[in-house]
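User: I've been trying to design a sequence by hand for this structure and keep getting stuck. Would you show me what you'd pick, starting by listing the structure so we're on the same page?

Assistant: Good idea, let's start from the same input. This is the structure you sent:
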């Protein structure tokens, strides 16, 4: 879970990247690409990631990035706080989270 100063850095970062961990080891990076090709969420495994270190059965380790248009891949999207947890995140960190799925993922615990 991020503290308020870390969240401030997250929200002000033009290129927010989130590390993905499996069993405590970094296996890849998720980022939002809003370049000329549209709003894309991109997840890319780190080179050399072992096949058994996949983040999800629906996202096996591969060299090509996983790309979803307009929202994160369902595996990541399921970790965005909802309901009471969303309200708690908004209360703690402010309304800036309301329109930022990446920031909501950043504050998600787990």
């Amino acid at each position: 879970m991020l503290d308020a100063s870390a969240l401030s850095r997250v929200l002000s970062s033009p290129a927010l990247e989130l590390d993905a961990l499996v069993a405590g080891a970094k296996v890849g990076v998720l980022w939002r690409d809003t370049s000329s090709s549209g709003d894309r969420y991109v997840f890319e495994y780190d080179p050399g990631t072992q096949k058994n270190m996949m983040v999800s059965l629906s996202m096996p380790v591969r060299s090509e990035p996983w790309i979803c248009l307009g929202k994160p891949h369902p595996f990541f999207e399921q970790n965005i706080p909802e309901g009471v947890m969303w309200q708690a995140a908004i209360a703690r960190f402010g309304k800036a989270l309301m329109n930022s799925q990446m920031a909501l993922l950043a504050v998600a615990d787990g």
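That's my pick for every position. To get oriented when you compare it with your attempt: The beta strands are 17-22, 25-33, 40-45, 66-69. The mean pLDDT is 79.
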